[in-house]
């Protein structure tokens, strides 16, 4: 059975359906007041007044802000993947190109060598590093007085004990030496000065103790101070395709004079790596190595 609705109260111009709360009956004296009994009735859906009622509701992120944040995160992720990979790729590419160029230069143009002994003092000192042009012999001809590096023709060098080193260090050293980033040691090479070319007759000594080439005595200003041109008498005609070489520190150099049992002490031109043209280390000794052409200017050619 439907209960009759409470009558609406209000002025004649009030909106239809606007109701007033029902009148509560009088509270008996001494009875406890019910919580919220006299509180005004709240509209449906209105928040209850409290500390949080004054705080504005957090607004949802705007689409533009979301897009910017996503772009920033995408940029970071992109750099950590594609960007980092690109950097590593560029570094590897540069290193490969550098090693390739170094190998080409070492193979066809220039190679570094380390001077281990005193046989070329004072022109070269032990510990010097020199650059050797591999275009001589080749496009450029060898001349008397040139300082050349050549492979051991056989038996000139005594086996040298190697300092112990780890396998990894040995591999790294051999690799850098192979590509030309480290100077080659003297384990298989020697460095001397050309005194006689193919066809020359080199002898020692004349009445003044000088070396003669094709009968012409030569004054050698590059000799180590106090050294004689040679303490050994000899006379050799250099065969075709070979060279007669001597060190500047004659008293300490075991050069062509000491190996006359092997092709008269001469060295095959095919064993020549190149001509030393500059000292590059240490910095205080950087200098060009000139060929003393004036020393042999009067020697006739063959």
Per CATH, the architecture of the largest domain is Ribbon
Number of contiguous helices: 2
Could you tell me how far the N terminus lies from the C terminus, measured between alpha carbons in angstroms? Answer: 145 Å
Share of β-strand residues: 15-25%
Segments where pLDDT lies below 50 for 5+ residues?
1-21, 34-54
Q: What class do helices, strands and sheet pairing give?
A: alpha+beta
Name of the CATH superfamily of the largest domain: Umud Fragment, subunit A
Mean pLDDT: 78
**What pattern of helices and strands is seen along the backbone?**
HEEEHEEEEEEEEE
Shape descriptor reads: elongated
Q: Give the number of domains.
A: 2
The proportion of residues forming helix, as a percent range, comes to 10-25%
- CATH names the topology of the largest domain as Umud Fragment, subunit A
Q: How many beta-strand elements?
A: 12
Classified by CATH, the class of the largest domain is Mainly Beta
Rg estimate, integer Å: 49 Å
Major beta sheet, specifics? 8 strands, antiparallel
């Amino acid at each position: 059975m439907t209960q009759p609705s409470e009558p609406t109260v209000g002025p004649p111009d009030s909106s239809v359906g606007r109701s007033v709360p029902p009148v509560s009956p009088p509270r008996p004296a001494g009875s406890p007041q019910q919580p919220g009994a006299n509180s005004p009735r709240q509209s449906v859906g209105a928040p209850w007044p409290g500390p949080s009622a004054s705080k504005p509701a957090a607004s949802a992120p705007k689409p533009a802000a979301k897009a910017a944040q996503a772009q920033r995160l995408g940029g970071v992720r992109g750099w950590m993947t594609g960007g980092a990979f690109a950097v590593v790729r560029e570094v590897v590419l540069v290193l490969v190109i550098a090693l390739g160029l170094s190998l080409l230069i070492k193979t066809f143009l220039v190679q570094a060598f380390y001077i281990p002994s005193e046989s070329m003092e004072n022109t070269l000192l032990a510990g010097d590093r020199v650059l050797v042009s591999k275009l001589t012999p080749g496009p450029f001809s060898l001349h008397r007085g040139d300082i050349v590096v050549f492979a051991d023709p056989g038996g000139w060098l005594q086996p040298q004990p190697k300092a112990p080193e780890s396998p990894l260090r040995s591999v790294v050293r051999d690799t850098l030496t192979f590509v030309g980033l480290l100077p080659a040691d003297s384990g298989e090479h020697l460095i001397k000065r050309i005194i006689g070319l193919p066809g020359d007759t080199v002898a020692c000594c004349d009445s003044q103790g000088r070396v003669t080439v094709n009968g012409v005595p030569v004054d050698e200003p590059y000799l180590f101070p106090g050294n004689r041109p040679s303490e050994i008498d000899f006379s050799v005609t250099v065969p075709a395709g070979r060279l007669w070489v001597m060190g500047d520190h004659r008293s300490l150099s075991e050069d062509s004079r000491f190996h006359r049992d092997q092709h008269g002490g001469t060295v095959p031109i095919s064993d020549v790596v190149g001509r030393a043209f500059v000292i590059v280390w240490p910095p205080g000794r950087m200098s060009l190595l000139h060929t003393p052409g004036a020393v042999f200017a009067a020697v006739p050619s063959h």
